[in-house]
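Exercise 7.
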Amino acid sequence: MNLRSIVLLFAVCFLLSNAFAAISGQEALAFASKNNYFLQGNEIAEISPNVKITHNSKAYWAVSIVSGDSLTGLIPVSVDSASIPSKNTDRKKIIETAYYLRSHDQIKRNALQYDQWVFSSLNSKRMDELATKLKSESSLDLTTIESELTDYPALLGILEEIKQDIESMHPKATALASELSATSSFESNFYNNPDTSDLETLKAKFENAFGKITVLEQEKTAYLLDVDELLQGIAQTGLAIETKQSLGALANAPQREIAFVSGLSNSSANLKDSLLGSFDTALSRSQTLADDLETRIKRNNSYAVLYGQDNDIIEKTSASSLEGLVGLVLSDEYQPYWKNQEELAGMRDSWQKAEAYFKNGNFETAVSFAAKTKKSALKVHEDGFTEPDTMLDTDFLITMAVLIIILLIILYAVKNRKKLFSLVSEPEEEPLEFD
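Solution. The predicted structure, written as tokens, is:
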């Protein structure tokens, strides 16, 4: 095997190892909802959006936390290591993109339902056709009209304005056709392969396309006003009726294309506020959700310290967690017999405070008191019992006491049997005497 083959084999193995190391969406879901303690109350977790989000060349799953119909949290989970980004700025950016994708999905589905999603290849094609028609057919028609209106300079002036309208609309229609196509392609790629660095670019493309639609609609309106003025002017000329009708038909705006521009403009107006507004909402909500995630991480870490498995405790005691060790030390079976009762009292106080602070959401303080609790609990356990060799079981002591009482009763009964017998025996009857 030559060197080139070895290098190629190594590269393939490296790629395969990375592929197998990557976690699935279900594994990310388990990390957030089962392996840790990020959820509260009736919250449930789901992978939404169901696509990996790239941030700084690394891929993440977005685990959405919902309660009822409300989104209450978002947890970015690294595909490489099943972990949460350490930097809050990274979390916030991933959360912003995930939140936007959730909103975008709903907005697009609603728009498609009512045929108002303007960013499609079909709309791009139809806009390109409009540009072609403005360039060719309209110019030919206007030339024919001009030849019939040589005696009407005022109408020729209006006709010139219409030519300028068309000359201005043509490049704008061409540019809009290109913009719709590019935006549609970029949006589709972003939706399927989102990258946090592309979010602002997508917003800019939407804004640019909406702006071009608005300008074209304004120029269409000006064009229609000039056409209407020309038609009225033709109607007032001394030309033959047939000529007026012919010129009117040539001068009239192309109805199909004008209706398309109007429809595109209406759809754009309905879509613009919700679509662009979703970017602003995602930005503002990302800060709130990032703060919420920070709290969830602190709660998770605190919960693990108080109630999670503790290898140090497992190694030194028969308990598996701090909660378990505290329960062991304070159990009725052992509590009275620990040698270090002073340390035990301190442990009880620290544990009560740790749990109280945890319930109140003061997780850092809870961890501090949990550390004190652990130190005291281990000390109590290490110091052991007062008299471990003679310590008796409580149930045994009770049994012995009952037996002693029974024995005393029996001894008393034996010693005083005559008295007891006389108390229970009947008195003898005296014989009857007869005179």
